[in-house]
Give the backbone structure.
Amino acid sequence: MQKQREQQGQQDQPDEKKVTALSIFVSALAGLLGVQKKENLERDFQSGKFWHFFIAGGIVTLLFMAGVWGAVQLLLSTTTTG
């Protein structure tokens, strides 16, 4: 009897989507690019913590800035002047 109640309780509860480190960085990258699915946004707000997304957003922003800086340095080093 107890086992049946436990199984019913498990069936009644919707599957919670866990927020992983990878999904946090994917969400931060999607936010940087301006594309994010509504279901992912809702998942992030329901089960994620603000500071995790804040830190991931900062890291993604720094990586983006470093990539732009590196591309500019590469182009400047390969161009001839004058």
Remarks:
- The chain has one domain: 18-78.
